Input
Amino acid sequence: MRFDIVTLFPEMLRGPFAASIVSRAVDRGIAEIELHDLRQWGHGKHRKVDDAPFGGGAGMVMQPEPLFAAVESIPGQAEARTVLLTPQGRLLTQAVVDELAAVPHLLLLCGHYEGVDERVREHLADDEISIGDYVLSGGEPAAIVLVDAIVRRLPGALGSEASLDEESHTGGLLEYPQYTRPAEYRGWPIPDILLSGHHKDVQTWRRRQSLLRTARRRPDLLRAALASDGAVSDADRRWLEEELETKLEEL
Ligand code: 6GU
Output
């Protein structure tokens, strides 16, 4: 999969992409990431890329020309999905990540200042993504998040594909608690069940911990899982109602 990223701050992205899963995926040829410094297409001696808003008001707005010129310089851009990173975009979820992971060529535009000229949204971007309901100074941290989330879904990017299987298996529930050695630390033991060697019982315990944790911390996610066919069995439902002393309909 190919990523082209247009940014005013390429240095913000280099470090994160040079580490861990993303860098390994690049080394393996699974992902290709190219950074494009928007300044290159800025106007005049100062390589200007922004100007005051028509109609007045505070802050600066990114001008259309440098962004259009940057995108139009990128080979294959006409076939790529061009995504503007902006707090006004659709919220990034795992479903959106998986949708974008199926696109062979993504072109990410990192917004800045008070915003981007509306003609960029209308005539250059195919899609707009936000990574959450808070405001960042620019789209770069969002580009790091988006690339990481996509790359780890690409075949061969993770050491073992089992990790991904397990994730999809848990179907929108939070993860169960994990423990490793030592079995007792500062007097805090791990749950006995994990030392029992009864694989089936361990699986049941983990499944229930997932359900319980999701019910308590993210009832919104549990409601979605309950509504999706086959994600939560009748046995799971009965156990959870008992444990919570609540009818699941009341969650
Ligand atoms: Cl993509 N950009 C900015 N500037 N702020 C954000 C965001 C993006 N997603 C959440 N907040």
